[in-house]
Amino acid sequence: MEKFERLTAVAAPLLHANIDTDIIIPSREMKSGKKTGLAEGLFAGWRYTQIGGREPNPKFVLNKPEYRNVRILLAGENFGCGSSREHAVWALHEYGFRSVIAPSFSPIFYNNCIRNGIVPVRLPEGVVRALAGKVEQAPQDHKLTIDLPAQEVIAHDGERHRFEIDEHHKEMLLSGLDEIDLTLTKKASIDAYLAADRARRPWIYLEP
Amino acid sequence: MQEARINTHAGAAARTLFDKIWADHVVAELGGGTSLIAIDRVILHERTGAIALRELAQAGRPIADPARAFCTMDHIVETLPGRADATRVPGGEALIKETRERAKAAGIRLFDINAPEQGIVHVISPELGIVLPGVTLVCPDSHTCTQGAFGAFAWGIGTTEAEHALATGTLRVRKPKTMRVTFEGKLGPGVSAKDLSLTLISTYGSAGGNGYVVEFAGSAVSELDVEGRLTLCNMATEFSAVTGLIAPDEKIFDYLKGRRFAPQGELWERALSYWRTLQSDPDAVFDRELTLQRDEFVPMITWGTSPQHAVPVTGRVPSFEESGATREAYERALKYMGIEPGTPMSSLKINGAFIGSCTNSRISDLRRAAAVLRGRRVAPGVRAICVPGSQSVKRQAEAEGLDRIFREAGFEWRESGCSMCFFAGGESFGFQERVVSSTNRNFESRQGPQTRTHIASPETVAASAVAGHIADVRTMLG
Fold first, then answer.
1. Sheet with B434-437, edge to edge strand ranges
2. Are residues A84 and B157, on separate chains, in Cβ contact within 8 Å?
3. Chain B interface, mutation test: which of A183, A191, A194, most B Cβ atoms within 10 Å?
4. Staple A106 to which of A81, B118, B298, B319, CB 3.0 to 4.6 Å?
């Protein structure tokens, strides 16, 4: 997984509440069965003029020239609700997003971000709206900075907002280490648990 | 008999049901509040199973315990009679074939398209006794919370976490906060678990449970049958909860007895004495408590594009002030749904009716819908479809003659699968068609491009199909 430390980049506001993973990537755009080739389907229902079409809708924020090279998304409450499809995160990542800032996230979507090098930043709704207001004035100049070690979002004018993130999640994002490899270093603990649990709850363990 | 009380320590502080399940699964503390949690059951499906199994195979990582991993074909399989691997979902057939090959190569049990056990993952897992009280169970599907109805910690994960669970038998999880939602009141005729859920979500919002494990309790919950509890827990993800769960009781134990993967004989007795400890202690403290007290719960239906946009079927499209939504979301929802404030819900004419999905496709759901449809006909111009949740449900319904009631009323009768709960490029009800659906999500374009979905209980779907407009099922009972 790609490491994340600090990023200064263009941010785009998409502040509706409850943007679900069907909106982020419609099921019909998940044809390939792969983790790649999904960026084109990102926000397809809003981004293109017609369902299934590829003609950009000029009103959609990501299609506006002033938001080119966008890397940070500012979003509304409960972002990523709905289906657990990790394709939503893969599509955001492939499109170029490295962070989403929102008042709250669906728990599954949040976990999927952590495992794909996207920093999910929780900030109060008023702060997210205020940041969007600043960005909108001049998107290419009013960039946002995500400083993960310091757990801060910094606006172009130097205004800082601290955000909370689990130490464990922060480490994963900073190190980019493979989670399975990390866990397999605990193999002795896992084996000890299983030996004890087989005695306590034998009905859990099934014959092949 | 060996004492199976694992989690009751004399003098220990009062704990919630979730605390007990959690404590029995901690393999190691990883620091920063995160624990390594043992995963008892992993279930895959063909939409994302192939990706997870492919990634593991390519990385040369074996599955830790294939006997505790399962796979079904439900998400994108065809549901027309006579089906095979071909599906109208673009790219679907290739995923189905790859999932089959990889599940076999990995040595995990597969419930294939035409297997007698096939069906929607959250319908077949209880049927087969894969989910049990006190287990941890994960599946790359957000509605895995359904299975919490058995007193399990069951939750939806992404594909990467599924790979982790398969490869290591564990997941890295920070212990979530706990919430108890207590429903007190009667469920009269024509009112079922779906109505409880929509009452909760419309009262507290679709982010109301964000980050919590929610235990459902109270007299209205105890009275629900096992299948109603599955429906209630199913919608926990629409409340943005990590998951939902319900303390297991005799109804759950009776249901499980003799199921294929449930313990048998002496192991059953040991399991049972453990399962009886799985309830929140009387003085257990939850991080948050909500109570919904009603003289009587009523049939509910959604008017907008979020499950929180729900009102009684006898109600009206709310004004902005009544809606509880932001101005932007409210106006967007009205426009999408093609409705005006103040319009009685019952005046909305429908073009489609759908009964199915992991929310409401079990035998009791079909029985209640059939009771409405018996001797009645679907209104002209309404396309009505019933998709049983599993082959087992379908066989049972056919044995009871319910399929004939559905067919004679004008419903299509299908093979089991997720079907039209979501649009994946295959079937849909069509552009701006208005559908009453027993599913779980009324999101924009969820059931098809611009399709307008109103979610409700299966009995409300049946009543509306007959009326040709949104209808109060209570006027068609008795």
1. B411-413, B383-386, B352-355, B434-437, B452-455
2. yes
3. A183
4. A81
CA count, 13 A, side-chain hemisphere, B251: 16
Q: Which CATH number fits domain B299-476: 3.40.50.720, 1.10.230.10, 3.30.499.10, 3.40.190.10?
A: 3.30.499.10
Q: How far apart are CA B130 and CA B133, in angstroms?
A: 10
Cβ separation A51–B445 shorter than 8 A: yes
Q: How far is CA B200 from CA B1, B115, B192, B357, B471, in A?
A: 43, 37, 13, 20, 21
Min Cα separation B375/chain A (Å): 37
> What is the DSSP code (8-state) at residue A81?
B
Residue of A nearest to B213 (CA): A107
B423/A28 CB distance under 8 A:
yes
Distance from CA of A71 to the nearest CA of B (A): 22
Q: Which CATH number fits domain A6-177: 1.20.140.10, 4.10.910.10, 3.20.20.150, 3.20.19.10?
A: 3.20.19.10
A26/B95 CB distance under 8 A: no
Main-chain dihedrals φ then ψ at residue A91, nearest 5 degrees: -65, -45
DSSP string of B337-365, one letter each residue = HT--TT-BGGG-B-SEEEE-TTTS-SHHH
Alpha-carbon distance of B318 to A8, in angstroms, equals 43
Q: For each of chain B's 478 residues, which pLDDT tens digit applies?
A: 344 445 444 446 999 999 999 999 999 999 888 999 999 999 999 999 999 999 999 999 999 999 999 999 999 999 999 999 999 999 999 999 999 999 999 999 999 999 999 999 999 999 999 999 999 999 999 999 999 999 999 999 999 999 999 999 999 999 999 999 999 999 999 999 999 999 999 999 999 999 999 999 999 999 999 999 999 999 999 999 999 999 999 999 999 999 999 999 999 999 999 999 999 999 999 999 999 999 999 999 999 999 999 999 999 999 999 998 889 899 999 999 999 999 999 999 999 999 999 999 999 999 999 999 999 999 999 999 999 999 999 999 999 999 999 999 999 999 999 999 999 989 999 999 999 999 999 999 999 999 999 999 999 999 999 999 999 999 999 7
Using alpha carbons only, what angle is made at residue B136 by residues B130 and B141, rounded to the nearest 5 degrees? Answer: 75
Q: Which residues contact B306 (CB under 8 A, 6 or more apart)?
A: A18, B206, B325, B329, B333, B442, B443
Instruction: Mark A96-117 as b/e (b = at least 16 C-beta within 10 Å).
Output: bbbbbbbbbbbbbbbbbbbbbb
The CA-CA-CA angle for residues A86, A87, A92, to 5°, reads: 105
From CA B190, how far away is CA B454, in angstroms rounded?
17
Q: Where are the domains of chain B?
A: 17-34+175-248+271-294, 37-173, 299-476
Pick the CATH number of B17-34+175-248+271-294 from 3.40.1060.10, 3.40.50.200, 3.90.960.10, 3.90.1150.10: 3.40.1060.10
Angle among Cα B366, B317, B181 to the nearest 5 degrees reads 60
Q: Same CATH fold, B299-476 and B37-173?
A: yes
- Name the residue type at position B166: L
What gap in Å lies between CA B351 and CA B450, rounded to an integer? 13
Q: Do B449 and A167 touch (CB under 8 A)?
A: no
**Could you report how far apart the first and last alpha carbons of chain B are, in Å?**
50
CA distances from B236 to A17, A82, B129, B299 (A): 18, 11, 21, 18
Residues paired with B380 in a beta bridge: none
CATH topology classification for B37-173: Aconitase; domain 3 (3.30.499)
